[in-house]
Amino acid sequence: MELTWLLLLFSSFFFSITTAQDDEVCSRPELGESIKLEGLQRYFSFGAVVVLACKPGYTPVQGPRTIVCKDTGTWTDTKLKCIPVQCSYPDPPHNGQLHYENTQYNSTVNYTCDEGYFLTGASSAVCLVDGTWSAPEPQCKPISCGPAPIPQFGMIIYDKIIKVNNINYGTSGTYKCHPPFALFGKERAECTATGQWTETPQCKEVSCPPPENIENGFMSISQKRDFAYTETIKYGCNDDYVLDGPHIVCEKNGEWSQKPSCKAPCSIGIKRGRILYKGRKLWIEDLKPNQVLHGETVSVYCMGGDSNCGYEVLTQCLDGNLQIPECFDEPSAAQYSLDSGSLPSEIQQC
Ligand SMILES: *[C@@H]1O[C@H](CO)[C@@H](O)[C@H](O)[C@H]1NC(C)=O
Ligand SMILES: *[C@@H]1O[C@H](CO)[C@@H](O)[C@H](O)[C@H]1NC(C)=O
């Protein structure tokens, strides 16, 4: 009996201890990532009051900030919210760009510079606990090439007036060679984004052999010598020949440009008939000498309709060759001398 009582007492005591632990203890509350709970305590007894706070980098909104361990082993509700601190909106650097997802605590902003610019300062910054950025906005400075290399016997003419110690990306210019040197390579040059100038051309001496004369013509020079790059020679033609083409130029390849030629005059290959030449209507025997110059035009007369009217047909002298139109019908000597009034040039015009 005594033993039973003792056993009962003991078991109830044991029971009361274990249930007291189950009923009256709250485990460490599970809080949002941004909410702070001091200490490492894992269990809290019934009635324990805990004051919550926001982690650094977060600011509290709404309360209450205390929670109490209830007899059910759970905690009272809290409406505390901790929102991340906001950093100011960063400005993009001049000639650069800004990359960020947001501007709240712990977020990163990255900076890049436009092509031809390099970054000085930090290329990224993090929004700190106190709402400031970890680094100031960097600067984008233009990449400098320095003065363009100058070829021997040459020069560069920059597109804009620039300071020699301030020749940056995008600066451009044109190379020229001092006469009589000829430029080989690219005339235009530019300071590139890598800080290098585009290729430098070369200036080389070029000469052309003494020029040759042209048939039926003459040159504007008499001495036989070599000529320098870009020098020119004019040609002329002998009497009645016509120059066809421009003067010649000593070219970069050491050769002359294409020579002009002298084109021959033409004689009009009809013995009897009337022509229209320089606005005048002439009998062929009155054209003295029987010759027109290269490029000139002449009309002859053909019979039209049912042989009751005449019309002009134009033809041109081309280097000694003047084609008489097929419709032209040369009259017989008798018709020409006795009945010239019946020729197509004399009757009514179509
Ligand atoms: C900033 O740069 C880092 C490293 O290059 C990259 O991981 C991150 O995604 C970038 N952030 C943004 C917002 O562009
Ligand atoms: C901040 O960001 C880093 C990496 O982006 C992360 O490892 C860290 O846990 C963050 N800290 C907080 C307090 O959010």
Automatic annotation (TrEMBL):
Entry keyword Protein biosynthesis: no
Subcellular location: Secreted
GO CC term, one of those recorded: extracellular region
Superkingdom: Eukaryota
GO molecular function: heparin binding
Domain Sushi: 24-84, 85-142, 143-205, 206-264
Keywords, comma-separated and alphabetical: Disulfide bond, Glycoprotein, Heparin-binding, Repeat, Secreted, Signal, Sushi
Signal peptide, first to last residue: 1-20
Disulfide bond residue pairs: C26-C69, C113-C140
InterPro entries: Compl-Cell_Adhes-Reg, Sushi/SCR/CCP_sf, Sushi_2, Sushi_SCR_CCP_dom
PANTHER family noted in UniProt: COMPLEMENT COMPONENT-RELATED SUSHI DOMAIN-CONTAINING, MEMBRANE COFACTOR PROTEIN
Record function comment: Binds to various kinds of negatively charged substances such as heparin, phospholipids, and dextran sulfate. May prevent activation of the intrinsic blood coagulation cascade by binding to phospholipids on the surface of damaged cells.
Protein name: Beta-2-glycoprotein 1
Lineage start: Eukaryota, Metazoa, Chordata, Craniata, Vertebrata
